[in-house]
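2024-03-11 09:14:02 INFO receiving multi-entity request
2024-03-11 09:14:02 INFO entity count = two
2024-03-11 09:14:03 INFO echoing inputs for audit
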Amino acid sequence: MKFSQGIKMALSAILSNKMRSFLTMLGVIIGVAAVIALIGLGEGATGQVSDQIESLGTNLITVNLTGGRNRSLEEDDIEKLKEKPYIESIAPYFSGSAIVKVGNKNMNTSLEATSPEYEDITNSHVQAGRFLVDNDLKLRFRVAVIGVEVADELFGHRNVVGESISINGTPFKIVGLLEEKGSSMMGSADNRIIIPLTTAQRLLRNTSIRSFYISADSPETVDLAVDELEAYLMKKFKDENSFRIISQSQLLSTVNEIAGTLTMMLGGIAGISLVVGGIGIMNIMLVSVTERIREIGIRKAIGARRRDILFQFLIESMVISGLGGVIGILLGITGSNLIGRALNLPVAISPRVIALATGFSVTVGIIFGLYPANKASKLNPIDALAYE
Amino acid sequence: MIEMKNIKKIYRMGSEEVAALNGITLSVKKHEFVSVVGPSGSGKTTLMNIIGCLDTPTEGSYKFEGVEISQYDNNQLARIRNRKIGFIFQKFNLLPKLTAAENVELPLIYMGMPGRERKERVAAALKSVGLSNRSHHRPNELSGGQQQRVAIARALVTGPMLLLADEPTGALDSKTGEEVMDLISELHSKGNTIILITHNMEVAKRGQRIIRLHDGLIVSDEEAVSV
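2024-03-11 09:21:47 INFO inference complete, emitting structure
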């Protein structure tokens, strides 16, 4: 009996009891829809995070000094490092959080105190006004560059260059508005303000610089730049635990790894519901076989071999779960898009995931349909014909 | 065509042995019309099952068209059932969800025949039983007599050598039963070999030869005397 005949027989059996077939499929539908939606949202979020990391520049390196207060890098250290090969630019910085206030509106924001090099190193350009300049640092001006979320929240508009803003109680003048960067699971890149390093040092009465953003010449030389840094810092502090160097590409691969694991876990959990769906199929197929004992006897009497009967029932369960898979995929795609739109989350569904889900659902049909189909094929035609 | 020698079918019930057939020796030639009669428990259904390759004997030799098939495996028996034997059952045994044409088509599907050829054969078979205009009806839309005729068409469609009928009129009223027996007699006159079991002597007498079974043995085998 040819495959196409089998499919026709399977479809007519499935259509002859639509409600029951639908309920049987439901397990697979839900399982596949869940797999597709969860993986879609998972990969969407991952994509967004890695895009954001990448947007800061993949030749970005972060150096943090740890340990006692007297461990820091001075001006001449910075000059020497700048001259090293592969290292292009260095921006020392502090970061923390601050409360900013305009009129009677206030909000929490993240604060970074740094130097003009920061703009290029971290790709933080302004869309209006200017970034920090050397003079701001020299003369310790109280100027600030703010992100769009701060502007929107406190001013209600983006025409903020020249306005005044209070940072932890001290008034500053806004000289620039940053470009919009968007937000992700890592937080909003638009909710921050940047002030000159030296101004912050004076206000906080603290001059030691313990964190640095460093850019390598190019994404390809990042690892070499990291080596140079390591060598210098080891020579200076003689303790490899006194500093931590993180390159953006490292960060990216870590994020991808974590996200990958998370996505697989989500997929795995959703996959469990596919197994439950498969059990449901096996259950109904067993009932179906019992209901059709007489029919099987008749078919065998007119010449169906064991494998014809096995085939017939196996194809039936494969079609049920395959159809459930297709419906589940459509449901998963629409569902994840709806959720994404509602919660403002990105969705990324690749053809690979769809193929995986299809393959999975057909396989479930084969595995869980095998036992009932085998049982059907082994029936003795004489006994089967006599069954009432 | 059929040669059976000392066929026995023994069932084991716990420690006891029950012989449904206790040593049957018979031969049936092509074009014969044989009726098998006997009380219930005489073994006629068991004999029918063995002749029809639905079951294998415990002992004895069964030669079908000269080939020893008593030790055939399931697949081989299925092949014979498909191509060489046509069954007609008391309860018709049509598949309720298929139309008449689809029911008749089924043996051809298991034979592996391509679609176009199948449709032609089905049309011819339904025509030969006079049901061409009912081919799209389901069994529940047909009368008992019509259902049995569809079953006969199904039995004929692969062009088998042998037709086996198990109480073909058992579920029909006497008038319809007559019509079906007329059809079977007609098939015989067209050259088919027919073995029929029944406990209705009127039906049995339609055959040329009556074999009487009792307790798993043949007690008589004689020419039918037409009334």
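2024-03-11 09:21:48 INFO post-check: Residues 174-189 of chain B form the longest helix (16 residues).
2024-03-11 09:21:48 INFO post-check: The radius of gyration of chain B is 18 Å.
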